[in-house]
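On clarity, I found the account of how folds are encoded harder to follow than it need be. Since the whole study asks how a given chain folds, the encoding of that fold should be made plain. The format is easy to grasp once an entry is in front of the reader. For illustration, here is how one protein appears when written out as sequence plus structure tokens.
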Amino acid sequence: MNGEYILHKTDEGRYKLELSMGDATEPAPRRLSFFRDIRDQFYDENSFAQDEAFNNKVVMEVQSIAVQCGVLDVHNKRHMTAFKNFCPSGLHFYRSPSIEKTVSALCFLNLLWFADDLLDDGHLTDEQSQHLVDSVADVFTADYKADKGTEWANIVGYALTVREHLAKHMSEQWIEHFGKSYRTYAKASLEETRRSRKRLDMTIDEYADLRMHTSAVFPCQELLAMLYNFEFEPSEDIDRARTLVNRIISFTNDIFSFEKEYNSNSLNLLIVCMNQEKCTLNKAVELCVGMVNRDIEELIEIENRTKGLGEWYIKAIEGMKIMVQGNAIWSKNTKRYCTPTSPFDDLREQYAFLSSETKPTL
């Protein structure tokens, strides 16, 4: 595809992407792609073998729990399609040999989706959205007393079930800490929605700071302690590694999901970058991939210098690297991001591959 994409802001505050063909005498621009520019080891699908029987058992159990709690309607085609696309993604993020622990982790991931699905309802007021977030987050606090009169009975009941599953493996203190992490994520998501609706511009640094809490990576990292049998201890290196992994996953996801978020007028790192730097989409991708690769290099440096400090360091960083790899592999193999209309050459090519009869089962 010749030409380069540039961004304009309309009078209504929306962003509009236009293809600028440039001067006919100028050389054709390079492909708009990013697969080969991000470190290859995080796309190595050969190192990520999965057990289909294990996966099917986990997904069926997670689905059964959601149906019993009334948050998933098997007769609702949209619900079931979204569930079948989203739920298995969690199997890429974690590699625990325990079915029970993996079910607990995926139940939480689906709690994020079910709550976000309600929050995406354009009919909710700001007060209702805040009440929903608080109602779910309160479930994970110590000495929680169920509020049977809440208007969010189904989702709160599901959150209680998630808590019960987590409590089979983790302490009450851990669960309360976990709940605080979820609350921070949910409140940041509300702030992101508010900014999007009001068409508020952000700098790259402002967006990056907010994105650390809207991606849900931090609460999902808490689950690593349960899945791989260790405790997060105070460590500046691990704290920095957690931030780096959040940045890598979040910013990579922003590249994959650019088309989807552009079409829904949502905040996205590439959009923020194009707006701030007044640059083309090609240049924005180059800048963002550079950010990701620098973070990956720093993560590897931390991994190398902490290997001899204790087994829990190894487990924590290995678990986080699996999350990075799993997110990349899932994103590369879902039609949620790989579409025939994507501005990225490699995502359009991947769509054709995924649509072919010869593609392997992942």
